[in-house]
Amino acid sequence: MEPRDRSSYAVYQAGRGIEEVARELGRDPEEFVVLSSNENPHGPSPAAVETIEAHAGGVNRYPKSSHVDLVEAIAERWRLAPEQVWLAPGGDGALDYLHRAMLDPGDGILVPRPGFAYYAMSARYHHGDVSTYDLSKADDFAQTADGVLASYDGERIVFVISPHSPVGSEMPMAEVERLAAETDDDTLVVVDEAYGEFSDRESKRRLLDERADVAVLRTFSKAYGLAGLRLGYLLTPAAWADTYARVNTPFSVNELACRAGVAALADDEFVEEVVETSRWAREYLHEHLDAPTWESGGNFVLVDVSDAPTDGEETPGSAVAGATQRRGVIVRDCSSFGLPECIRVTTGTREETRRAVDVLNGVLTEVPEA
């Protein structure tokens, strides 16, 4: 007995963590700063931690009322009906629900390249086809309706990432509106705003009041610091009111995640601190790194390290990421995104960001083995 052949499927490659790297190098995890996975360097919302501790003894019960409470809190925050909030185990879980709801076998999705690998993975799990549109380094990864429409061929779903990881660019509201207007009536435009809290631009959620062909993806993983609880959601058109119950798995979001989400959503002071620090760190990276960077709306900065010295076998991104890792700072080699000459640096605390800049600037002038 063998599973079906999935050798052609892409694999999601996560950023490396402290424990993994420390074990590999035989070092103490306390020596490292991890700036590779766009996690929240401040930890989780303190209000969420208190709530988890208070409700840990109740995990023998299914998350019924807590799920309802969180959906209602999100709906109130976004001024939507609760039926428009699709709660899920992470943003990836929301993608699975979306594809269950939207895709018949052979239907297509259109995704950016570079981009989040799980869009394509999830669509293929649901027997969908995948096409791509390119974001060009030569154009500073600008996101425009024309750039997407040039590759559009009637796909059922078109994905836009704004702010985009790993490049940091955003698609302006007017461009998303034009994209939705110029695609077919039965095409859904999904705007992934996983990093939306870090942007100074308006959420595309407003379009849900005006159109029935736009949805917005959000997560608690980044600004709220709940990545380990896997909690995300989709904001959908009002016409989809009864669809979520038909595609959701039973009790898909766990009790502690639901409780923590309610608490975190109300912890505005924590989120404001996180966003303020991240924006400071972005500017510090732009100003002090001895390498070209791109403007970013997220909690990370893409860095061009193509001029860094290598041993001739590694890509510049791999060489720099490896060298900084050996010096205690873990950043993301962007080769898996199709950008082998780049690294992505998550915005850390002020201390972590200054350390990352010092280490990177040293590495950029030396051979990676040093």
Strand order of the largest sheet: 2-8-7-6-5-3-4
- Helicity range of the residues? 25-40%
Strand content: 5-15%
Major sheet, described briefly? 7 strands, mixed
| Rg for CA atoms | 21 Å
Counting DSSP E segments of at least 2 residues, the number of strands comes to 11
Name the overall outline. globular
Question: Mean of residue pLDDT?
Answer: 92
Question: What order do the SSEs take from the amino end to the carboxyl end, as H and E?
Answer: HEHHEHEHEHEHEEEHHHEHEEH
Explain how this protein is built:
The protein is α/β, with parallel strands linked by helices. It folds into 2 domains: 121 residues, Aspartate Aminotransferase, domain 1, CATH 3.90.1150.10; 211 residues, Type I PLP-dependent aspartate aminotransferase-like (Major domain) (Aspartate Aminotransferase, domain 2, 3-Layer(aba) Sandwich), CATH 3.40.640. The chain is built from 12 helices and 11 strands. The strands form 2 sheets. Strands 2-8-7-6-5-3-4 form a 7-stranded mixed β-sheet, with helices on both faces. A 4-stranded mixed β-sheet has the order 1-10-11-9. Helix 7 links the parallel strand 5 and strand 6. The longest helix is centred in the last third of the chain and has 21 residues. Pathway: Amino-acid biosynthesis; L-histidine biosynthesis; L-histidine from 5-phospho-alpha-D-ribose 1-diphosphate: step 7/9. This is Histidinol-phosphate aminotransferase. It catalyses: L-histidinol phosphate + 2-oxoglutarate = 3-(imidazol-4-yl)-2-oxopropyl phosphate + L-glutamate.
